[in-house]
Amino acid sequence: MKIRTATTNDTNQLSHLLDGYRIFYQKDSDLAGAKKFLEERMTQKDSTIYVAESNDKTLIGFVQLYPLFSTTRMKKFWLLNDLYVTPAARGQHISVRLIDRAKQHVIETQACGMFLETEKTNGIGNQLYPRVGFKLNEGCNYYEWNNDL
To answer: Which pTM was predicted?
Structure first.
């Protein structure tokens, strides 16, 4: 198994992973929408995606990062927005390897850090993230405004 940067050649397999990720978060399956979304991200180069590829070249996980900026630190800051491993591949530390690659990306881009958000009900994620060095920021309030049309 190896971790590598996703390419446009991965779009078909990656679409299935993204669809599975969305279903995990109780969204309706939309394979065509997932493919279009990924094609846009890759074409516009507005995210960085790393994939976990098994020895038989099957994609079994991915992490997607979006760039943000910290004005107070005057540096780039990355949002680890998506992390997913197929149910069959879980328990093999693939998530840890994907996060390690994301951390390496933060260093390579001379960013000041990376943050993520997960639901309070995501028991697996809430155990994983502190184990790999993320700290829960209890000093901030998280607010959200949505323009759901």
So the answer is: 0.93
